[in-house]
Design brief:
4-stranded antiparallel β-sheet; mainly beta; Jelly Rolls; single chain
Length: about 230
């Protein structure tokens, strides 16, 4: 005969079965789990509306962290948000090479779309790196792609550096002035002064880690931008 308990508080066991051969609701070290009838695997949970509290939404929570069995988490920024955010995915399928970009934004609703990105060859790319009076002596800038040709190198002074004779060169490890020497810019120049060189160097066959080598020379004030224009010829 069907019936119900009106004052059932719980069970002393660590799991509770729903139906004679149904799934189990299990307590695993304080974590609620849905398990199959044999308690050998996780059971599926279906719901019309699902809510989670905390900053992470985790997939494959029971992963062993070995082989191909790992978790994947989506994380909300814990600080800085000023409104509720809704992410709307595109309703079409992408093609190979397309990027996910923002189609519109309003009232916290971000709608994405798939966008075809221009090919990497024959397109001029500019990398920018900030230089300040207290920068490290060796400053990593970016990785120049294989077969890329450096077209222009610029140092733009935003705030003049003080100090005796601060300098910067741009190049690679072992050839610190490959693309710009210390004498081709003046960090003590007035604000908005730009120094530009054309290296005219044949492209390297492999990736180059571009670095700036900086000598503060007791500078306590100063800021500049270092820009490198490059292209991969087709």
């Amino acid at each position: 005969m069907a019936g119900k308990f009106t004052d059932l508080l719980g069970t002393v066991y660590n799991k509770f079965r729903i139906g004679l051969g149904g799934p189990n609701i299990k307590n695993n070290a304080g974590v609620v789990e849905a398990r199959d009838p044999a308690d050998a695997a996780y059971a599926a949970v279906a719901a019309l509306l699902f809510s989670t509290y905390g900053d992470d939404f985790e997939l494959n929570s029971g992963a062993t962290q070995t082989g191909n069995d790992w978790t994947l988490s989506f994380r909300r920024p814990s600080t800085g948000m000023t409104e509720d955010v809704v992410l709307v995915w595109p309703n079409t399928a992408p093609t190979t090479g397309q990027a996910l970009t923002v189609a519109s934004y309003a009232g916290g609703v971000i709608t994405f779309t798939y966008t075809t990105v221009a090919a990497g060859t024959d397109k001029i790319v500019t990398d920018a790196t900030a230089l300040t009076f207290d920068s490290a002596a060796s400053l990593a800038m970016f990785n120049l792609p294989a077969n890329a040709v450096v077209l222009k190198v610029r140092v733009i002074v935003d705030t003049p550096f003080d100090g005796t004779a601060p300098t910067v060169s741009i190049g690679i490890s072992g050839t610190l002035s490959k693309y710009m020497t210390t004498t081709q810019s003046d960090l003590k120049a007035s604000a908005a002064t730009s120094f530009e060189v054309t290296p005219n160097i044949i492209a390297a066959g492999g990736i180059e880690a571009i670095i700036a080598t900086y000598a503060a020379s007791s500078a306590t004030v100063g800021a500049a931008r270092m820009q490198v224009d490059y292209v991969i010829p087709s």
